[in-house]
Design brief:
The complex is a heterodimer of chains A (442) and B (437). With 442 residues, chain A is α+β, with helices and mostly antiparallel strands. Chain A is built from 16 helices and 11 strands. In chain B, helix 3 runs parallel beside helix 8, helix 9 crosses helix 15 and helix 11 crosses helix 15. Classes of the chains: A alpha+beta (442), B alpha+beta (437).
Chain lengths: 442, 437
């Protein structure tokens, strides 16, 4: 122990250079926000458009339509043949993809810096001009169903998490899977996709992110040429999804599947997310997740894996960046011979002990130092840096919030962590799920 | 003192991007050879070590020993137990990753310049003086066993296990390097010590670094870090000729989507036609939507979310493989389409248009890979393992450009073997005839 303290003392006395990558922001006349992150080490740019619309912005009954539309955006516009978008990116040595989440949908390409204009020309085109035939729709719907088969139907753990999440959210659309419920996916139509497209795909609902070997002036000139002429959607409404009622009854569930080889227990609690100008509780919860489940020196690993040996694996997770209420979760994978009931009891025992013992100040110091160092390592990956901004700006946060976040994390005290823990660990707002095989071999 | 063998100022040119990469070849006073790209703009270093010979070095009856050994390296070393080690690593925010495959043990380290000495002392302890104490080994063993049991019910893993067992039999490639429940349960501390001495040795280490470090400092660091490794380790396994029979082998598993692994003999990395084969595969089943398999199986027919083919030049065998997953009632059609495309390309090769498009993609994409200390260190260590020279970085795109339509046609005829294309399918596939079953 003495040795460790000496190390920490050394590290914290040393000055830590944190030359952040330069970030520039501006807004186009049609309301489209632009963020430029410079990194001139390699002649590469990442070009992304993030829409402030995800699966949680869908109408009820057409789950999966946001993700379906994301696929259809590769199917051609008035001027681009189906597949031509990606083929053009590839022919220019680049790579492209897209993803859909609860709160956002993003399209991104990674290309040589001098190909930025071509990306802007094509991406701005498909913001308003997609053109789809009935046949493409049916084929692509088969593709997303196969995607669901791969990601969910073939994976009992994914099926379990889907049911689990639906139990966590009583009213908010976060309880509906991003990829969609299977029975609704198979009925999705072109009109469903176009309705979503017309409502949400507009410059005043989008953020342009360009990161890499580019200057803000270059981006501004190109963005003015390609994105600024696009008309804003005047009917765009405030993002107001159905919110959770007071959750007053703890939920418990069991999912059985013969394909389960390793049973486990998962618990999650409804939790506050990062709010613009008020990120302190979320910062404390982020650190709480690290304290409980972040690696070998974490509370759960120490108590449940090293000391009691009730678990082969434990974790704590918290998704801080979210537009609406998020979750704080715990997982315990029991050691051989330990039942799920015993594992759950051990997890609750460890949690209760932690609530009494409080935060180990050395662990808190180590976590904060690692978060500081992560800022330095992050500069090596401008793509990840850009995603951090995209994620935040489509989750109700501002550039200022993103830039303030590291300091807010550093300011978190042991008292803040314990207060956040008191707040979040409310069983009435929780779901506890058992994933198990049908065989009774426990 | 440090000795510079040569320093290249390489300019990788693609379609338009020019990445300037200055690869220094460094030899430490103690004789360790490393490649370095120095860049002082961010105060950290990425260091990559590779030891040739991974799970394939497992001794008879000790399947899984190398895997368990690697997984236990950071669970206590020198005078530290697992917790001390982790706490020390966290306190300096160093990232130390240990991984392995059939042919390689990989060590990836990232550390802040200001904590270089502490980070390297920790890494040295893990590499040279791991404790393998009983409680740590037992804890990691249970995690490994849990993974093995999960893999046994995962169709993605099942197809691989069955396919490789069929092709490679008793050769180490014929079984999963994590071992079986029985073999892993039987491993002793002595087995791990033997695996450690056998896998991590001076005669098989490859080194690359990128970031905030000078050649001189790197040399000194390497001598301190690796100087106490044993000179030699276990012998590498024998080479195997891949022999497959065309047909479909079904592994019944109750799940809605069937997973298929398919393939046959491939080409060695140092084969003169490897580059042509690489270009050809990109057109057949490489990553993009433009690849023929993706176009035919997904884009035109919606039979899958993803279908890929890839060259797998292992150290002791060469394969050409592919993967697809389709609903149980659609996998038969997917397999038919893949077979047809395989035969078509074997017969006809590719079109000039396809070749031109894939060349612009490959040459344009190459310089974009060198976009950070982490990626650069990984590329540099991989090049050394493939026995390439630093000049490859500048020559590579010209080699892509030099591939002609006639080359592709000839290599397609030799590489693609529809009469040997073996499919292993896990699931409840409907309508698959299963010759060879």
């Amino acid at each position: 122990m003495r040795r460790l303290t000496a190390l920490i003392a050394f590290v914290f006395s040393a000055s830590m250079a944190t030359a952040e990558a330069p970030v520039t922001t501006f807004t186009l006349d049609n309301g489209m926000d632009v963020v430029v992150i410079e990194d001139h080490r390699a002649p590469v740019v990442v070009h992304m458009v993030w829409y402030k619309a995800g699966s949680a912005d869908e109408q009820r009954g057409v789950s999966g339509v946001a993700h379906f539309l994301e696929h259809l955006l590769f199917k051609g516009t008035k001027t681009l043949e189906p597949g031509e978008f990606s083929a053009t990116v590839a022919a220019n040595g680049g790579s492209d993809n897209a993803f859909t989440s609860f709160d956002q949908t993003a399209y991104h390409q990674r290309v040589a810096a001098d190909r930025l204009e071509l990306m802007m020309r094509m991406e701005s085109d498909r913001m308003l001009n997609i053109q789809l035939g009935p046949e493409e729709i049916l084929t692509e719907r088969d593709v997303i169903i196969e995607e669901r088969n791969m990601r969910v139907e073939n994976d009992p753990s994914a099926l379990f998490r889907e049911q689990f999440r639906a139990a966590q959210y009583l009213n908010h659309p976060y309880g509906t899977p991003i990829i969609g419920w299977k029975h609704e996916m198979s009925n999705l139509t072109l009109d469903d996709a176009l309705a979503y497209y017309r409502q949400y795909y507009a410059p005043n609902n989008a953020i342009l992110l360009v990161a890499g070997d580019v200057t803000p002036d270059e981006v501004r000139a190109l963005a003015k040429e390609y994105y600024e002429p696009l008309p804003a959607n005047p009917d765009l409404e405030e993002r107001a999804r159905a919110q959770e009622p007071a959750q007053t009854a703890e939920r418990r569930m069991v999912y059985r599947d013969p394909r389960v080889a390793q049973p486990y227990v998962m618990r999650s609690y409804l939790a506050p997310e990062r709010d613009s100008g008020a990120q302190e509780t979320a910062a404390a919860l982020s650190i709480l997740a690290e304290i409980l489940g972040g690696g070998q020196t974490s509370v759960f690993t120490q108590k449940l894996q090293f000391e009691e040996q009730k678990a082969v694996y434990t974790s704590a997770f918290y998704n801080a960046t979210s537009l609406d209420d998020t979750t704080f979760g715990l997982v315990i994978v029991p050691a051989p011979g330990v039942t799920l009931e015993e594992a759950e009891a051990a997890l609750d025992g460890a949690l209760a002990e932690f609530m009494t013992e409080g935060v180990d100040p050395e662990q808190l110091d180590r976590i904060k130092f690692q978060m500081k160092a992560a800022q330095i390592y992050a500069q090596d990956d401008v793509n990840r840096l850009a995603r951090r901004y995209g994620d935040a700006l489509t989750s109700g946060l501002t550039v200022e919030d993103v830039q303030a976040w590291p300091d807010i994390l550093q300011a978190v005290t042991a008292e803040d962590v314990m207060a956040a823990a008191q707040l979040v660990f409310d069983r009435k707002q929780s779901v506890t799920g058992y994933l198990m095989s049908e065989e009774v071999t426990q | 003192m440090i000795r510079f063998i040569l320093a290249f100022a390489l300019i990788v040119t693609g379609l338009s991007a020019r990445a300037e990469i200055d690869i220094q070849q460094v030899e430490s006073p103690g004789g360790f050879k490393a490649w370095l790209v120095e860049d002082h703009s961010i105060p950290f270093v990425a260091l990559e070590l590779r030891f040739k010979g991974g799970g394939s070095l497992d001794l008879p009856g000790k399947r899984g020993a190398t895997n368990l050994m690697v997984a236990t390296l950071e669970e206590g070393a020198a005078d530290m137990d697992a917790r001390d080690f982790a706490a020390a690593r966290e306190a300096i925010a160093a990232e130390l990753r240990f991984d392995m495959g059939d042919d390689t043990v990989s060590v990836s380290a990232k550390f802040l310049t200001e904590t270089k000495d502490e980070a390297m002392a920790l890494l040295r302890a893990a590499l040279i003086e791991p404790n393998f104490d009983e409680t740590a080994v037992e804890r990691v063993r249970q995690q490994v066993l849990s993974n093995i049991r999960s893999d046994a019910k995962d169709p993605d893993e099942i197809v691989g296990d069955v396919f490789y067992a069929d092709v490679f039999g008793d050769h180490p490639y014929g079984s999963a390097h994590s071992g079986t429940v029985d073999s892993v349960s039987g491993l002793t501390r002595d087995d791990l010590i033997a695996a450690h001495q056998g896998a991590l040795a001076k005669d098989r280490v490859y080194i690359a670094a990128a970031g905030d470090i000078s050649a001189e400092d790197l040399g000194a660091l390497l001598d301190e870090l690796l100087g106490a490794l044993p000179e030699t380790g276990l012998p590498q396994p024998a080479d195997v000729d891949v022999v497959t029979e065309a047909g479909v082998q079904v592994v019944p598993f109750d799940t809605p989507q069937s997973v298929a692994l398919f393939g046959h003999k491939g080409l060695e990395r140092d084969h003169p036609d490897f580059f042509t084969a690489y270009v050809l595969n990109q057109i057949l089943g490489g990553g993009g939507f433009e690849a023929r398999l993706m176009e035919e199986v997904r884009e035109k027919r919606g039979l899958t979310y993803g279908v890929y083919s890839y060259l797998v030049p292992k150290d002791h065998a060469a394969l050409m493989l592919g993967r697809v997953a389709s609903a149980n009632d659609r996998i038969a059609e997917a397999i038919t389409v893949i077979r047809d495309e395989w035969a078509k390309m074997a017969e006809e090769g590719v079109t000039q248009e396809e070749l031109d498009a894939v060349k612009t993609y490959l040459t344009g994409a190459y310089p974009l890979r060198f976009d950070g200390n982490g990626p650069i260190a990984r590329i540099l260590v991989g090049m050394q393992m493939d026995d390439l020279t630093p000049a490859y970085v500048t020559e590579r795109n010209a080699m892509v450009e030099a591939v002609t339509l006639a080359d592709v046609k000839r290599v397609a005829g030799e590489l693609l073997r529809p009469d040997q294309l073996k499919f292993t399918v896990a699931g409840q596939p409907v309508g698959l005839d299963t010759p060879g079953q």
